[in-house]
Amino acid sequence: MRFIGLDQFALFRDVGLRGCLPDGSEDPSWRGRHGERNALFAELLLTTGMRLAEAAHLLFCELPSSEACHDTDQRLFPFRLPAAVAKGDKARTIRLPVRLLRRLHDYAALERANAIERFAERSAVNAKTDALSAVEADRNMIVIVGDDGQRKRIRLDLVTPHDRRRLCNADDMNVAPAMLWLTETGAVMTPWGWAAVFRRASKRCRSFGIDIDVTPHMLRHSFAVHMLSMLIRAQLGMVMQDRSGGAAGDAAYRRMIGDPLQKLQRLMGHASITSTHIYLSSLDESRALVDAAINDWADALGDEETAA
DNA sequence: ACCCGATAACTGGGTTTCTC
DNA sequence: GAGAAACCCAGTTATCGGGT
């Protein structure tokens, strides 16, 4: 398993995906056209820990509304990841940073809207016999018209990735793809399309001597390792409080390791806790995090002994 | 802890699309 | 038209979950 630090991610995002030079300045020779879209997708993977296929198959209508994310003073927005796109059909709730959600709506209002326009202009080329036309759609369900002309209501969390790629929003005037992530011609960005984006970005980084090879799944691993270290640190703080309050004991120690792992298991959508355990060994690789936690722990114990 | 099958992710190579 | 970026497909590899 491989993961990257936040500094390395920033380099990958800015140099590889956005086409900047390593010093952060603009690269006039950069020809990429989707730098912001690609950087946003990478940040989505890193900040939520979603699998590539999960993030790639989100529908625009599933996103919390633009108004909702502007009205809230919360930093994170709970988002129910649909069962049909999650591995093993297991829906789970992830936390979407509101800052990112606003940028997703910005992307939808500009780049995605342009792509849909291109799609409409090329409607003769894009006409697909297997398209699934939704005449109504909201965050929970769509209404499609079947071959027999009957309207059918379908829950969005039951729409498979294959059908999501076919799904279009249709009214009397236009047909527009329903997926969130689109290519510049309005086609659906597939998981293998994203894999290629990451490959090119890594190659560009290496051309500047930045020795990284980032894949979408690496960002999920990175999310897990960072989240676990932060959960353990937060838990260490709670254990300190327990000890100072005189309620030390096995329960506190169990919580120190057990709770963060269980929280991470839920966030990652692992069916088995053994899959989550692999990130403990990754923490060993990231010695600085472990050392910092141990130092905190040692300092606290030292304080107690001095007091005694 | 290990093994195995199912599924997801990655890669290489080819094609298409776009900009200059 | 050339070159770069974007996209797609098929084969391979890695991950994950469940059973023992």
Keywords:
308 residues, alpha+beta, 5-stranded mixed sheet, two-stranded antiparallel sheet, 12 helices, 55% helix, globular, disordered C terminus, DNA-binding
What does the model show?
Keywords: DNA integration, DNA recombination. One of its GO terms (molecular function) is DNA binding. Residues 1-292 form the Tyr recombinase domain. By secondary structure, this protein is α+β, with helices and mostly antiparallel strands. It has a domain at 216-307. Helices cover 55% and strands 11% of the residues. It is built from 12 helices and 7 strands. It has a 5-stranded mixed β-sheet with strand order 5-4-3-6-7. A hairpin with a 3-residue loop joins β3 and β4. α9 (216-244) runs antiparallel to α10 (250-268). The longest helix has 29 residues, at 216-244. The two termini are 44 Å apart. It binds a DNA duplex (20 and 20 nucleotides) through α8 and α11.
